[in-house]
Amino acid sequence: MFDSKKFSLQLIEPKIIRLSVVDGIELEQQDAKDMIAEALEMSDGSEYTILFDATKSGNISFEAREEFAKSKKRIAVAIVTNSLANKLLGNFFINFHKPSSSARIFSDEQMAIDWLRELIKEN
Q1: Which tens digit of pLDDT belongs to each residue from 88-112?
Q2: Cα(111)–Cα(106) distance, integer angstroms
Q3: Would you give the DSSP letter of residue 4?
Q4: What's the CATH number where 53 sits?
Q5: Which domain holds residue 45?
Q6: How many CB atoms lie within 10 A of CB 115?
């Protein structure tokens, strides 16, 4: 487990890392770089997936979103939220920033985990 003042990462099973952010936080490009570096360390440098708990609100800078989008070792990101605003932001991230890995939005965490497991099997 990794905790910072802005986010936490937790390996919940092999190749699946839960990303949670602090409510109301503003994430900048360096935060994104730190997250990616920590995720790589948790995965021992191999490919991984992100289960992004987007149930809290906050702001992610354009530069941070660009950094997340170009992450190389990430197989996929599953964004989990029930908030309409966060779903819209997630769709914007997927359609505008065009992440280099698969990305989907879910309202059910278990469905998100099942999807990530399928993608891990395919890789």
Answers
A1: 888 788 788 787 789 999 999 999 9
A2: 7
A3: -
A4: 3.30.750.24
A5: 2-122
A6: 17
Helices (H) and strands (E) in the chain, counts: 4, 8
b/e sequence 23-40, b meaning 16+ C-beta within 10 Å: eebebbbebbebbbebbb
When pLDDT is cut at 50, 70 and 90, the band that residue 30 belongs to is: very high
Rank 40-49, 56-65, 87-96 by mean pLDDT and report only the highest. 40-49
| pLDDT tens, position by position, 74-87 | 999 999 998 887 77
- Token readout for 71 is 């992450």
Q: Computed over its alpha carbons, how large is the radius of gyration of the chain?
A: 13
Alpha-helix residue ranges (DSSP H) falling in the chain: 29-42, 62-69, 84-92, 109-122
The structure's pTM equals 0.89
Nearest to 37 by CA among 75, 76, 72: 72
φ/ψ of 72, rounded to 5, equals -85, -40
Total tally of structural domains belonging to the chain: 1
C-alpha angle 28/4/102, rounded to 5°? 60
